[in-house]
Every structure is written in structure tokens, then in C-alpha cells.
């Protein structure tokens, strides 16, 4: 039976084909040219620190060894998007669930589920950045605490969407990308700076009041003043959650 990447619970590096390696290289080289001028320095420095490059698909084992020494985070290979309870439990334990399969050459610009390029290229570098990793961890603790409250999870999902996935940050007077959904998307990383979108100052109450559509490019984004603001927002985040469920 052929290897089905959607069912892989571990990375079997021997199963990657020459086309898989080509997909990784093509996506990496195409995106990094743009990100050099539009991604935040925290991401770009972390990308170099974790050693991602276009010449070979990264090995999860090697990434985990490095992350363990820096922020204590680990990657856990999963076949697909995990249920909220599983995802939050892993985050609470400093583990990020990541896929090990890659999209096809015919699907470079869009896939319906996150693949390894999104999960590893998009998310992993900032897991090596202490402030961001701490926020991710505490966000997971918060999600685990309120996992039995659907309204709370919906509100936290909005935070995740507009920060971890599609967040922007101010850096040296310029607006830069840090969200993994933008980092890994050739189309949306450009769209987020177009004249057709709105950039709003970061406001946790506004974020938690804003619905999103995950099937289209976004029409507005929230801009952090600095990464510390994510950690500073956690008490207000929990206060809003408590008000919503009581």
C-alpha cells in the first residue's frame, strides 16, 4: 500500500519523493524572496536560528532537539488538524501539532488543510522566540481551562486567527508579517498590504468581537505594537471569556 501522508503520525523521511523535495524548495524560495522585506525580524532571525532552508525538507527530530534547548517547545506529528481539546492540551504542554505531508506541485497556491510548509515553515521559527513561545503556551493553558465551553473556544479561536495565523506587528515604524498563515501564503502575504484591506491597531476586545471566514482572504488585520503585547493581553482575554460564559 502506498504511503498516505494524511495518515502519518510520525515523519518517515524515506517516504519523501523527489517531487516532495521540489515542492518544498519551490515554496521556500518563492516565499523567502518576499519575506525578506515584509516579515518581521523576529521571524527572519528565528528562521535562520532553526536552520530551515530550501535544499531539503526539514527533519522534525532535528527541529525538536533545537527547540528543546531554546524554548522547550516540541513538534508532534499528526495526520491532520486536531480537535480543539487535543490541540489545546498539546499547546499547554509546549507541544505544537504539525503535519509531515506536503502539497502537490499542482496545488502550490492553495490547499484546504495545512500541510508541512504551513506548519513548519510558517509556525516553527517563532516557536524558538521566547516571548512568542510563552504566549503560545499560556494561550494553550487558557484554551485547556475553558475547553468545555464552546463560546469560550470560539472567542479564543478568533484570537488565534488574528494573531498566530494572520497577525501583523509594528517594527521600526513599519508594518511587518508574523502570522503563520501570512508567512506561508504567497497570495495573502501580498494581499495583506494591498489597498483593499484595513489595518487596525491591536485591541483584544475588538479581536474577540470579530468573526472571520477561513475560506477567503481577509479584509482586515490587527497590528501589534510589539510582541510583549500578546502576553499582556492574556488577563483581558480571560476576563472577556469569563463574561461570555457567565
Describe the structure in your own words.
By secondary structure, the protein is of the alpha/beta class. The chain has a single domain (5-245), classed as Aromatic amino acid hydroxylase (Phenylalanine Hydroxylase, Orthogonal Bundle). Helix content is 51%, strand content 10%. The protein has twelve helices and six strands. The protein has helices spanning 18-38, 41-50, 60-70, 84-92, 116-127, 130-145, 150-165, 180-183, 188-191, 204-208, 228-232, 234-245, and strands at 74-77, 95-98, 168-171, 174-177, 198-201, 220-224. The strands form two sheets. Strands 4-3-6-5 form a four-stranded mixed sheet. Strand 5, helix 10 (204-208) and strand 6 (220-224) form a beta-alpha-beta unit. The protein is globular. The termini are far apart. The model has no long low-confidence stretch (mean pLDDT 95).
Sheet with most strands: strand arrangement:
4-3-6-5
Output the CATH class name: Mainly Alpha
Assess the beta-strand content as a share of residues.
5-15%
The CA-CA distance between the termini, in Å, is 52 Å
Write down the overall mean pLDDT: 95
* Total domain units: 1
* CATH topology annotation: Phenylalanine Hydroxylase
Label the structural class.
alpha/beta
What is the helix fraction of residues, given as a range?
Answer: 40-55%
Describe the main β-sheet briefly: 4 strands, mixed
Architecture per CATH nomenclature, i.e. the level-2 architecture: Orthogonal Bundle
Amino acid at each position: 500500500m502506498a504511503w498516505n501522508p494524511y495518515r502519518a503520525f510520525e515523519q518517515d523521511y524515506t517516504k519523501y519523493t523527489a517531487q516532495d523535495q521540489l515542492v518544498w524548495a519551490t515554496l521556500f524560495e518563492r516565499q523567502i524572496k518576499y519575506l525578506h522585506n515584509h516579515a518581521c525580524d523576529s521571524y527572519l532571525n528565528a528562521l535562520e536560528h532553526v536552520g530551515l532552508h530550501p535544499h531539503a525538507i526539514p527533519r522534525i527530530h532535528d527541529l525538536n532537539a533545537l527547540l528543546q534547548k531554546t524554548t522547550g517547545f516540541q513538534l508532534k506529528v499528526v495526520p491532520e488538524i486536531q480537535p480543539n481539546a487535543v490541540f489545546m492540551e498539546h499547546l499547554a504542554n509546549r507541544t505544537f501539532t504539525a503535519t509531515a505531508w506536503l502539497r502537490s506541485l499542482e496545488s502550490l497556491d492553495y490547499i484546504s488543510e495545512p500541510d508541512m510548509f504551513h506548519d513548519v515553515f510558517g509556525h516553527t521559527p517563532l516557536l524558538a522566540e521566547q516571548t512568542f513561545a510563552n504566549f503560545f503556551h499560556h494561550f494553550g493553558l487558557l484554551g485547556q481551562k475553558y475547553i468545555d465551553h464552546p463560546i469560550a473556544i470560539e472567542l479564543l479561536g478568533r484570537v488565534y486567527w488574528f494573531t498566530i495565523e494572520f497577525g501583523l506587528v509594528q517594527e521600526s515604524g513599519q508594518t511587518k508579517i508574523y502570522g503563520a498563515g501570512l508567512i506561508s501564503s504567497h497570495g495573502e502575504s501580498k494581499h495583506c498590504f494591498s489597498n483593499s484591506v484595513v489595518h487596525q491597531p491591536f485591541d483584544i476586545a475588538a479581536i474577540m468581537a470579530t468573526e472571520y471566514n477561513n475560506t477567503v482572504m481577509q479584509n482586515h488585520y490587527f497590528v501589534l505594537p510589539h510582541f510583549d503585547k500578546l502576553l499582556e493581553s492574556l488577563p483581558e482575554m480571560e476576563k472577556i471569556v469569563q463574561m461570555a460564559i457567565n
